[in-house]
Amino acid sequence: MIGRLRGILVAKRPPWVLVEVGGVGYELEVPMSTLYDLPDIGKEVVLLTHYAHKEDTVALYGFLREDERVLFRDLQKVSGIGARISLAVLSGVSTDEFARLVQAGDIAALTRIPGIGKKTAERIVVELRDRVAHAVAPVPGSGRSALPRDPRGEAEAALQQLGYKPAEAARLAAASASEGDDAEAIIRKALKAALGR
């Protein structure tokens, strides 16, 4: 199992990054919270990882912080939640904010995260309420199609990866894009707008 990678950040194509370690390029899917804090291309990066193998697919997910990886794993223990929704949660709210929402039983706020309906939000509250406080406490420490190269197109593609329907992703990206914005800035603004923050 791969638990951690240290290497050179070669590419950022939200929500994917490519890290070269000893001549091997590892492609990882990361939440936007990690993407925002990554160093510039060509710099060294250390990512905690989660390796997933299901039937005929293998995926590698990357995180800058242990609390995010713990929450990513805990979320998938809730019935009906997979990696995509777990990444959407981490992309939409901080681990501290998520813990606050779960402990408060704020179903309305949880349902604003793409892919989470009322029943799923209720299951999250019931199944994670007791565990979320310590689970998210901070701890120190492929043949895909090419994504569009323009920032708005990259943001739109990333929003679709996070579970937004194509029309909604296009609307959010268009409404959030300002001249000079890179994809990360557009995604950040779009997620804030979508979640009403």
Give short descriptive properties of this protein:
DNA polymerase, domain 1; 20% strand; Helicase, Ruva Protein, domain 3; OB fold (Dihydrolipoamide Acetyltransferase, E2P); 46% helix; globular; alpha+beta; 197 residues; five-stranded antiparallel β-sheet; 3 domains
Task: Walk me through this protein's architecture.
With 197 residues, the chain is of the alpha+beta class. The chain folds into 3 domains: 4-63, Beta Barrel (OB fold (Dihydrolipoamide Acetyltransferase, E2P)), CATH 2.40.50.140; 66-135, 5' to 3' exonuclease, C-terminal subdomain (DNA polymerase, domain 1, Orthogonal Bundle); 151-194, Orthogonal Bundle (Helicase, Ruva Protein, domain 3). It has 9 helices and 5 strands; from the N terminus they run βββαββαααααααα. The chain has helices at 32-36, 66-75, 83-92, 95-104, 107-110, 118-135, 151-161, 166-176, 183-194, and strands spanning 4-13, 16-21, 24-29, 44-54, 57-63. β1 and β2 form a beta hairpin. α2 (66-75) runs antiparallel to α6 and α4 (95-104) crosses α6.
In CATH, the architecture of the largest domain is: Orthogonal Bundle
Which class of secondary structure composition applies to the elements? Answer: alpha+beta
Shape: globular
Given the structure, what is the number of helices?
9
Major β-sheet profile: 5 strands, antiparallel
What's the helical proportion of residues? 40-55%
Q: Mind telling me the C-alpha Rg?
A: 16 Å
By CATH reckoning, the class of the largest domain would read Mainly Alpha
Low-confidence stretches: 135-149
Q: Tell me the strand percentage band.
A: 15-25%
Within CATH, the superfamily of the largest domain carries the name: 5' to 3' exonuclease, C-terminal subdomain
